[in-house]
Design brief:
Blueprint lengths: L14 E4 L11 E10 L7 H11 L4 E11 L1 H13 L4 E10 L2 H5 L4 E4 L4 E3 L7 H5 L6 H26 L3 H8 L7 H6 L5 E2 L6 H14 L9 H10 L8
Parallel strand pairs: 2-3, 3-4, 4-5, 4-6, 5-7
Antiparallel strand pairs: 1-2
Helix pairs in contact: 1-2, 5-6
Length: 244
Amino acid sequence: MSIVSKRPNKASEFVTTTCEGQQGDQGAGVVTLRLRGAIGKTDAISVKQVLPIIDQARSARRLHLVIDSEGGKVDEAEAIYALLRSIPVPISAEVNMKCWSAAIMLLLAADFRWARHNASLLIHRTRAIPRDVLGDNYVTAPQLIDQAQKLYASDEREVEFLAIRTGYSRAWFAREQSNEDLLRDDAALRCGLLHAIEGRDPFTMENLALFDRLTTEAPLPSECLLANYRAAERVAAMPGASHA
């Protein structure tokens, strides 16, 4: 999740809507938050922009995120993640086109996560533009070492966050972080970043309907809705499985 990431060429668009059951939306009582563009205090996706909608969602049946972002400032993404996790309602997320870099943190704020068939996900090491953190003056070796340590620390926090939120291997996320490759569909599902992909079994809308039913009729801790958690339950229930 980079401090600075690639930015779209066109002006970013930030749109929020409240669903009231119209055709094609998420249904009555669901607030939809559309997150499109760069993440940052002065960018399209910021705490200032999303806070009114998040507050509105506190009394909703569900908050639904629609994500199309190449990332941006990790500190702003962390602040938005904290706001999203603070509301007492289930959250679902849909990757419409791109979920790269710091946008992954917004995706992981959701309890149920799915993607359109042509969407892409990307995680990578933290990056910074030298001028932004060191200025235009000459710098010393200790200053460079200090900045490098901050970047390494950010990478470590990201890997720890990904592992905790998905329940998947920390070592796997560390390896994936070291390259600039888009995640394959099977890898995104296996590691728990996504629970479903449009057009693949199990069918996404059936999963979303189940998610709605479980969280409305019989509320469960969010970790019980994760794909990896359910897989572990199935393994534990197999004949001969040890429960020691």
